Amino acid sequence: MTPLLHVEQRNTILLVKLNRPDKRNALNDELILGLEAVFSTIPDGVRCAVIYGEGSHFSAGLDLSALTERDAVQGLHHSRMWHRALDRIQFGTVPVIAVLHGACVGGGLELAAACHIRVAENSTFYALPEGQRGIFVGGGASVRVPKLIGLARMTDMMLTGRVYQAEEGERIGLAQYRVEEGLGLEKALELAGKVAGNAGMTNYALMHILPRIVDAPQEQGLLMESLTAAIAQDAPEAKARLRDFLAGKAKKVGE
Ligand code: 1HE
């Protein structure tokens, strides 16, 4: 395992830390391949993962020092490598929560967007400086970021270099939660505990089926929904949970 990533299992939660603070967690090939390896081999018993960054920033995005050496074909392979790695996060075996602080820019935002839940500390700021650097996003932002904030906002971010601060970022959908500085990991662990307690089929459906339903034509989406609902309700775990509720033994909504 690369020392640029620190991985620790706490019961059913896997904590994955970007550990390159001197370079603001800029993502070089070693880090991207390390993330791909970690999310391709989630240990049995892990039910949720949390990604966070060491130092004063979540991630400054792509390591720009390597960019000047690539030609177009190498650039294509490099972008596809990012796609593979971030797909392992979005479509892996467990839901992933990102804890953001400081810079969440370029490839850092692409990494965050591949996670299922984003918790942003108040210092977080978001940008896609690719526009200003004369390049284009290559780590999946074109597909994932418009699903969070819409095409118009992403276009504006890249055309003008617009930076969203934490509060506005939460309002437009870049993060689902915003917390005081230093409290992001605690919040993520609280959420991870809830996620880990869900039925396996529910989490699988939310990670793998819901995004496909959203991308599908309505008729196919509705059919996929019905199939998923039927399979989910048939599981013994679902039946036991429903019996518990009807017997007054399960938590009510909001409890
Ligand atoms: C880096 C990188 C990097 C920092 N690649 N080395 N991303 C960007 O365009 C963002 C570029 N970075 C910044 O704007 C700033 O570094 C930050 C706002 C994130 C942080 O500022 P600060 O003052 O805390 O740190 P710093 O002094 O700018 O940087 C500290 C060191 O990290 C310094 O190296 P040093 O050897 O001089 O100490 C920086 O050079 C280094 N560093 N960011 C390489 N990104 C799949 S395609 C995705 C395409 C993209 O992501 S493009 C967007 C790239």
From TrEMBL:
Source superkingdom: Bacteria
Signal peptide positions on this chain: none
InterPro entries attached to this UniProt entry: ClpP/crotonase-like_dom_sf (IPR029045), Enoyl-CoA_hydra/iso (IPR001753), Enoyl-CoA_hydra_C (IPR014748)
Any one Pfam family match given in the protein's UniProt record, by short name:
ECH_1
Task: Identify the Gene3D superfamilies for this entry.
Answer: 2-enoyl-CoA Hydratase, Chain A, domain 1 (3.90.226.10), Lyase 2-enoyl-coa Hydratase, Chain A, domain 2 (1.10.12.10)
Family according to the record: Belongs to the enoyl-CoA hydratase/isomerase family.
- Write down what this protein is called: Crotonase/enoyl-CoA hydratase family protein
Query: Species name for this entry?
Result: Fibrella forsythiae
